[in-house]
Amino acid sequence: MKRKRKSVLKKWIVLVIVIAVLGVASAFFMRPKTSPYESIDAKIGDITTYLTFSGNVETKNRETVISEKVMQISKINVKDGDIVKAGDVLFETATGETIDAKISGEIVNLDAQENSLIMTGIKLLEIVDYNNLKINVKVDEYDISPLQKGTQTTVKIGAISKDIKGKITSISKQGQIINGVTFFMATIDLEKDKNIKIGMSAEVKLVSDKVTGVVILPMVAIQFDDNNKPYVLKNNKKGLAVRNDIITGINNGTVVEIKSGVLSGEKIFYTKVKSTEPKGMGFPRGNTNSNNVGTGGK
Fold it and tell me: According to DSSP H, which parts of the chain are helical?
């Protein structure tokens, strides 16, 4: 009787083990297959790219008054900090001659003294116009196209944490070659602000390019072949991710305009980009700008 009970018990143990093994095997073989791809839907959005340049605040007008001949100053009509207008008399000489201001501004660095004999070429004072300020910036030859005389800009003055409006008033016609790179000088006039000081650092920002209502994708979803031609992966009729060539437009370092090859709403597959890969890899300079910053799509 005992032997019979042991035999039944063994059968039950074996049966339980078999059921457990079958359960594990079933779960293993029936588990959903993991895809090697990430996916995202193409959508409609806007892209704006910007150019940024650095410079320092300067005055548009500065006059250094220098003695043009030997003279004796009999009277000085100004002192440091005085505001003068063009044509005001600054000095009177012993011979009755006058030295007048050629620009309007504030008197600084007054070095002359009354009844002193002044030799030729001696600096007497400076006149600085603090009301009309500007910034000169160096522009890479590849970034010069969006810059036009009269273009409005935003100028960030870090020292006073303020954005000031600016306007491009001139662009040099001749470039300067520095370490094999050609630069052009652009001048931006600033709107008046009493808190801005000459010499302050500034960052000039202006729109480089803009598109609205276009198909966009994250740059990470775009791949390039050995000939640097862009493409994306889309499912074919068999459900396999296959290559589809595309034409790209502008990008802002995050998203890129798709001119053809992808429709809004289409699912695009891609592999995760390694963090060591530079953003925008594969895009020619014409599609992105080393100086740009931008806003993504909607």
Answer: 2-30
Single out the residue of 23, 11, 27, 41 nearest to residue 215, CA to CA.
Answer: 41
d(CA 108, CA 61): 13
In tens digits, the chain (298 residues) has pLDDT values of 555 555 655 665 666 666 665 665 555 555 555 567 788 999 999 999 999 999 999 999 999 999 999 999 999 999 999 999 999 999 999 999 999 999 999 999 999 999 989 999 999 999 999 999 999 999 999 999 889 999 999 999 999 999 999 999 999 999 999 999 999 999 999 999 999 999 999 999 999 999 999 999 999 999 999 999 999 999 888 888 899 999 999 999 999 999 999 999 999 999 865 544 444 456 654 433 333 333 444 3
Domains of the chain and any CATH numbers: 38-51+210-295 (2.40.420.20), 53-59+131-208 (2.40.30.170), 63-128 (2.40.50.100)
